[in-house]
Amino acid sequence: MANIDTPIPALKLNDGNSMPMLAYGTGTAWYKTGDEGKLDQAMIDSVKTAIKLGYTHLDGAQMYKTETELGIAIKESGVPREKLFITTKIPGGDDIEGALRTSLKKLQVEYVDLYLIHHPFWAQSPSDLQTAWKTMEHVRTLGLTKSIGVSNFLPTHLETILSTASVPPVCNQIEFHAYLQRPDLLAVHKKHGIATVAYGPLTPITKASPGPVDEVLKVLVKKYAVNEAEILLRWCLDQDVVAVTTSGKEQRLSDYLRVARFKLTPREIEMVNERGVEKHYRAFFQKQFGEGDRS
Ligand SMILES: NC(=O)C1=CN([C@@H]2O[C@H](COP(=O)(O)OP(=O)(O)OC[C@H]3O[C@@H](n4cnc5c(N)ncnc54)[C@H](O)[C@@H]3O)[C@@H](O)[C@H]2O)C=CC1
Ligand SMILES: O=CCc1c[nH]c2ccccc12
User: Fold this and answer.
1) Is the confidence metric ipTM above 0.95 for this complex?
2) Known catalytic residues?
3) Which Gene3D superfamilies does the UniProt record give (predicted)?
4) Sign of the C-alpha dihedral, residues 149, 254, 31, 74?
5) Which of 70, 174, 215, 223 has the least C-beta neighbours within 10 A?
6) Can you state the percent helix, strand and coil of the chain, rounding each to 5?
7) Contact between 239 and 231 (Cβ < 8 Å)
């Protein structure tokens, strides 16, 4: 039974669909480096726990090699398909329709809610991205996904696909937290009505700890009687950014849901932002961005 007394808000997307603003991720903590066929029962149990607690937005990817586990958990949860928001991602631009059909089989669903191009770094030329985006539009028309979007795209990649797109991406899933605020990229999102979806939202208290936002977090933790993670997740939501987090610990998953119960003030968001820009930290795709790049 769901333990949410206050529902997680949803964000309206530019194609009219809605996305729950807190997601459970099946990548970090769960992705496999080895044999995809070896089932991870701990992950299945954790996804079922998350769904039981009230998570409806589940973030997957072909690259994580965990779509089969995600599919089993969804099926065993007993929650009707239409109550869930399921995302998965294709790593590159080859055979997008075939890759999506394979993902759907593993996920044991007829359609996903959101299909993303995981990153743009495989493309050799702008036309590679444009061709891939046309195929994304095609799989949406076929009804294999309700919405289409991208991940880890920079302004130049977005402008490239937008210049030939019939349907714009609903979102760009990016690393986003107090130490990687990416104002230029978010301005492009805003200009085109593209939602920002944050992965790595807890980085300031995990990989990049200690740091300059710690003092502000301490004050806000006391004021709202929650923990640091919840402040960081709420900091996303209060800037209209969807947060994708994860944990194998039921208590943490349960705690995160308290984000629905409070709001930060504009001044509190600003305080986190002001201290956050004092430090730069990128956990993912460092090689592709290059040392010290802040975009
Ligand atoms: N599109 C992309 O390229 C990427 C997408 N993702 C997606 O986002 C999801 C979440 O990514 P993360 O970086 O893991 O998000 P995150 O920054 O929310 O970190 C979650 C991790 O922090 C740990 N944690 C939580 N509270 C903690 C505490 N107080 N102390 C120490 N550790 C704590 C959790 O156990 C979990 O392992 C992934 O599972 C995946 O679905 C993640 C990375 C890249
Ligand atoms: O999506 C998160 C980051 C990432 C990029 N490549 C891989 C491969 C396997 C797991 C995670 C990732």
Assistant:
1) yes
2) 64
3) NADP-dependent oxidoreductase domain (3.20.20.100)
4) negative
5) 215
6) 45, 15, 40
7) no
Per-residue pLDDT of 141-193, as tens digits, reads 999 999 999 999 999 999 999 999 999 999 999 999 999 999 999 999 999 99
* Residue of 35, 64, 90, 151 to test ligand 2 pocket, by largest number of atoms within 8 Å of CB: 64
Pocket test for ligand 2, best of 65, 66, 118 (most atoms within 8 A of CB): 118
Check if the beta carbon of residue 116 is closer than 8 Å to that of residue 83.
no
For the chain, domains (ranges, CATH) are 11-283 (3.20.20.100)
The residue whose CA is least distant from atom 41 of ligand 1 is: 25
Kindly state the tokens that stand for 96.
């997008």
Distance separating the N- and C-terminal Cα atoms of the chain: 42
CA dist 233 and 276 (Å) reads 14
- Cα angle 9, 273, 179 (rounded to 5 degrees) comes to 95
CB 221 within 8 A of CB 228: yes
Residue type, 137: E
The answer to whether 192 is a known ligand-binding residue is: no
Would you state the structure tokens that stand for residue 134, as one six-digit string?
């046309």
Question: Do 75 and 102 meet the contact criterion of CB atoms below 8 Å apart?
Answer: no
Atom of ligand 2 nearest to the CA of 91: 6
Biggest CA pair distance of the chain: 51
Query: What residues have CB less than 8 Å from 197, skipping those under 6 apart?
Result: 19, 23, 149, 151, 171, 172, 173, 174, 241, 242, 243, 244
Quick: pLDDT tens for 196-231: 999 999 999 999 999 999 999 999 999 999 999 999
What pTM did the predictor assign?
0.98
- Please, are residues 38 and 32 in contact by the beta-carbon 8 Å criterion? yes
DSSP 144: S
Q: State the Cα–Cα distance between residues 4 and 10, nearest whole angstrom.
A: 14
